Predict the structure.
Amino acid sequence: MIGIFGGTFDPVHYGHLRSALEAKELFGLSEVRLIPCSVPPHRPQPVAAPFQRLQMLKLGINNRPGWVVDTRELDRAGPSYMVDTLRSLRNEFPGRPLLLFIGCDAFNGLTSWHRWQHLFEYAHLAVLTRPGFAPQPLNEFFKLRLAEEKEQLRQAPAGKLFFQPITLLDVSATRIRQAIAEKRNPDFLLPDAVLDYIRSQGLYEK
């Protein structure tokens, strides 16, 4: 199975990386693909330039085996709709199970995403939650796709919804950018190599 993590990664931090690591282990993923968004349709535009976010992401994963920085959204013009990304991945990996990982907040807003129902044609959705999290009541569309066991995700390339509690670190890119702008030290919130790059580029200082 291939895991897919999207985001602006502005900058990448330990919250992103720890979630991806736990997901890789819990689901037995052969590969984790981190896909930096070019033009996010549901949130403010990134502060750092695309090439800077890409470089920070590469520094963050540090050539870790089984981790891939996927540039298809940066290479594509227009809004970075996840449904287009998943369709592209499905064409590349026609028979393999694909798992799109999203957080519980993103899931609660999923019905506002572009062509959200079609996401399930190309991938499974795995919602990463804090222990004890209770999602909003599921509509009939989601109930029909709900998987009770992880093993069900291996039995088809796409189409299922699964909720997985993990250790979610309370780290946000917004707070990191704010700390840097206020000349506070964001050590231990993100990899040293990423922080060194931020300082070398003068990112987020204003």
